[in-house]
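Q: Can someone sanity-check these two? First one:
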Amino acid sequence: MIMSRVFRMNLGGCNRKLLAVRLADFADDEGRGIYPGVARLAAETELSERTIQRILRDFVEDGILMVVKEASGRPGQTTRYDFDLATLFSYVATPTGDSVSPVGTARGVTNETETGDTDDRDGCHGVTRTVIEPLVEPLSERDAREGVREGEEGQTAEQAESPAAIERAFRKFFFGWKTSISDSEIDARKEWFSLPTSDRTDAFDRSADYQEQALTTGRKYLCSAAKYLRERRWTKLAAPKRAEDGPVPSKPFSRPWCALRLVELLKPMANLPAFPPFVRKMIEDGRLDAEAQQRDRIAQHGWPAVNELHARASNFPPKGSLVPPDVAAIADGFTGIKVGGSVYEAWRRLHEARQWPFLPNPGKLEYVQFPAIPDGSPDDIDEAVAAALNAFERSARGVRGDEHAA
């Protein structure tokens, strides 16, 4: 899927596109799991190793690639990358890209244009999944109007909203639509720009509900994004029915989601699978470090429920989870922690000490949720974070029972 899309993009030069296509071949359909060595990429693309290194560095700086794990320097352990699909699919090449000039766009397909729609006469596509998860962040008035210049007094929102802000809002909507891969982006964008501001906001806010209701009524097909906008289908939605005491749908990095994650981490470690014979042989020969391999194995298999939460949060679009109501209730004691700050790093050290997998990449989020540090905690930040975890563990035992909190 990613290869097909990259083939139609303008990435700033043939060398950049060639490498991006090869990286997409390594990745799964969610853009994860890219860890070929530079020498292998150079041999397969016929580019020099220095060119490979330069383009990889440029892709990371552009936000197209995310470094998941740096190379350790040990044989066979290369840097692991994941694609940031949102950045990749919205990438616009600049004139200062690769040293090789890109193909002219007069006749080709660029990132801003697509070939004709592939849907049927009714504008609908087959869909296999029947549950639509919400995006990480809803479209807000601030998001929709980000970058708007201040106008004259009395200027309406319709007049003040900039085309760039409308385009950013469109991309959030379009890439959250289940059939966006096969939809016509051109048609959807045309319909989006024809809507007034209030309708665009409503169309986005109710798009996830519409998709969920459309696919849970027994329909096999979901209409295209353009048809949804053209026919204003969000206005025909039935009021959502929620079970009063049922699970709470929660977005990644929200308070309930982070509380569920910690509740799962407080459970005993799962049984670890044995090393494959070839790994044992490499450890015996001294080619792999036994402790490092054991740490990786614990991170991958020790808490499978947590790894599943992390994988869903790293998906594109990000997928939330259903949180039991009793766990959601104890999330009220969580507070926002600045990503990269001293408290955030103290939580990271606590995870490492317990051999827990740490949070996945929060992307552009500035704050993530952790239990608040209780009053009277020690001045030492690591001890204070440990006190916060202990307080949460007591709360978790109270609502989940000892079998749920080790």
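And here is the second, same format, sequence then tokens:
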Amino acid sequence: MSTQTPSTETLTGELLAVSVGGVRDVHVGSRVIETGIWKSPVTWRVPVQGVNLAGDDQADRTVHGGPDKAVYAYASEDSAWWATQTGREFGPGAFGENLTTRGLDLSGARIGDRWRVGTTLLEVRQTRIPCFKLGLRMRDPLFVRAFAQAGRPGAYLGILEEGDLGAGDAIEVVFRPDHNVTSALMFQALLHDASLRPKLLHAPALPQFWRDWVAEHA
């Protein structure tokens, strides 16, 4: 099992935008779906408390939100890549992210990385597994499959220290655990390569839910 020895590597980035959104109803055929995936950027500093950003919400807390999915970050570099692939422009919040970043490889973020942003301290907890609501947001049901194949998942973070943050803040990775369990590796292990699943247990910060899941599915 890997230790929590900090890496000497220094990583910094920039918070380009902070986006929040409440729950809305979306009509899908004869059904009405509740979702909080529509996020819009705000211009003020946003309090980060409990398991959320102020003004943000999720429709189904059994699969979204909570302490291990309190904040979702997506890199502007990945949004730009999607623009080249699709011919569409993706502004801040387009992928349902709260934090749009620049200068950090979020696929390479390690489970347990800690970010100092504004007056908050956030910890990378897990990758993103896309669900059908991403297809609703993109108005393309096939986008979920494309996202699963692209291997650009972003990262979910928990809140270690409450505070506030805003666009233009620096992102300083103040702690890197001594393992190579990245968001991309977790994404690959859960969706494409079961042989990688035992490696997830090398990350001490991996949520208990996923530890139990790996024990059943490795």
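A (reply): Looked at the second one. The chain has five helices and 13 strands. The first helix runs from residue 76 to 86.
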